[in-house]
Structure to design on (460 residues):
């Protein structure tokens, strides 16, 4: 990587608090832009797909700004994408909420289903079990990260899964080639989250 | 390993300034919510709650500014409650950098508001703040607890436990359960009230009101609280976040 800051586009598809992601990425050295105008996002060093709320609503927002096409093309070309929370979930084939199935972007195989736990949402700081050689969790594999979600992916959908248990195990993060994703919010996970974002930036 | 018990300091903010006594010697400006938030973050707070008690709507701009500046510096979840009356209020707070909003009086006046917020932004942003007390005098509720407004000064006659359950049905993602009887007493949480609400909801419950000693927190978690909140004991420096976590850990609870 040259001396110039890596350029990162945070996709604004109308979902929740984007300010924290913007500030956290800037803090660890990214040249960040938050935008719904995705023409320039094809050339950015990294793209972040955030998301909170319902899968179907998030996916509708993603389609409105054509972020689905952007993500597919970047992954085909091996250009990094980081999905966060529901922005991770919509990378999978399908999301099921209240018996309703919604197609995701489909760059990861598998389904997003309701977690099996007595208390939902899964809200708070939980531990992670990253795979050997994880880039994202270098130096922070023993830390806790901040989760807030009621849906997730069961383990075994892809390689490179980091697991967490709430009631039952689910996928807390994925590292698969150019594609990275976290079910938790690194931008809300204190110093551990900032380190994870820095790890992602360094690998761009 | 499982999810950690969250320890949450609450700051009362009036026109951009922290009110109630703050006694941190190391602070340059003890009335600056941004500086206090950063201090609590360094001390290991798992989340922060700002309770906006600004009376004049003209001064509410300062609240958004405080939220904005806090979100720029502090990378842990921030809940803002107080005076949230509409979907637009929620939108503005989220855009300023809040992660969750607490709704109290406006939800009592118009329960549909809870559904409107959760449908637009997801239930994870919506905390139902319930100020409850044991009923006295002529008031009767089936749980023995009623919802109050105006900082506990006015009873509503609504059953507090039923209201929490209804909140979950309407889409709230969390219950902030504040005992108005215990609040300010430093005599411990209202354990029976926490148990009563835990029995009827499956969303997380934050216990609030009454914390005075480190030993007070474990029983609240044993009663079913997923998180514990306190204000004055932290502001006055009577207890530090780390001491509370050490006590919880020694009682076998997981903390961050």
């Amino acid at each position: 990587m040259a001396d110039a800051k890596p350029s990162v586009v945070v996709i604004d598809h109308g979902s929740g608090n984007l300010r924290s992601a913007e500030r956290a990425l800037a803090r660890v050295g990214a040249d960040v832009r938050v935008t719904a105008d995705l023409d320039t996002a094809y050339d950015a060093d990294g793209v972040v797909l955030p998301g909170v709320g319902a899968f179907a609503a998030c996916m509708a927002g993603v389609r409105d700004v054509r972020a689905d096409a952007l993500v597919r093309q970047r992954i085909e070309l091996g250009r990094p994408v980081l999905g966060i929370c529901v922005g991770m979930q919509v990378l999978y084939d399908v999301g099921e909420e209240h018996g309703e199935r919604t197609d995701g972007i489909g760059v990861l195989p598998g389904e997003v289903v309701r977690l099996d736990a007595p208390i939902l949402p899964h809200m708070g700081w939980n531990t992670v079990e990253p795979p050997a050689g994880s880039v994202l969790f270098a130096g922070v594999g023993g830390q806790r990260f901040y989760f807030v979600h009621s849906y997730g992916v069961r383990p075994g959908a892809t390689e490179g899964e980091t697991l967490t248990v709430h009631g039952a195990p689910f996928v807390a993060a994925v590292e698969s080639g150019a594609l990275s994703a976290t079910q938790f919010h690194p931008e809300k996970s204190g110093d551990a989250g900032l380190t994870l974002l820095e790890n992602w930036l360094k690998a761009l | 390993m499982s999810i950690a018990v969250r320890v949450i300091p609450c700051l009362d903010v009036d026109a951009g300034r922290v009110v109630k006594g703050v006694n941190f010697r190391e602070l340059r400006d003890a009335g600056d919510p941004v500086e206090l938030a950063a201090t609590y973050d360094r001390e290991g707070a798992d989340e922060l709650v700002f309770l906006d008690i600004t009376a004049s709507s003209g001064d509410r701009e300062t609240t958004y500014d405080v939220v904005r500046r806090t979100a720029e510096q502090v990378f842990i979840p921030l809940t803002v409650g107080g005076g949230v009356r509409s979907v637009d209020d929620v939108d503005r707070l989220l855009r300023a950098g809040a992660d969750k909003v607490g709704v109290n009086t406006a939800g009592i006046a118009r329960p549909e508001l809870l559904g409107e917020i959760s449908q637009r932004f997801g239930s994870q942003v919506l905390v139902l703040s319930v100020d409850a007390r044991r009923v006295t005098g002529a008031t009767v509720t089936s749980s023995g607890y009623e919802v109050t407004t105006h900082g506990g000064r006015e009873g509503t006659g609504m059953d507090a436990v039923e209201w929490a359950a209804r909140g979950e049905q309407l889409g709230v993602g969390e219950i902030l359960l504040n005992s108005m009887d215990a609040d300010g007493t430093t005599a411990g949480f209202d354990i029976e009230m926490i148990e009563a609400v835990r029995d009827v909801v499956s969303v997380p419950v934050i216990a609030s009101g009454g914390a005075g000693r480190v030993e007070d927190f474990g029983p609240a978690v044993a009663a079913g609280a997923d998180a514990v909140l306190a204000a004055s004991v932290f502001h006055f420096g009577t207890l530090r976040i780390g001491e509370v976590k050490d006590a919880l850990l020694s009682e076998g609870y997981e903390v961050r």
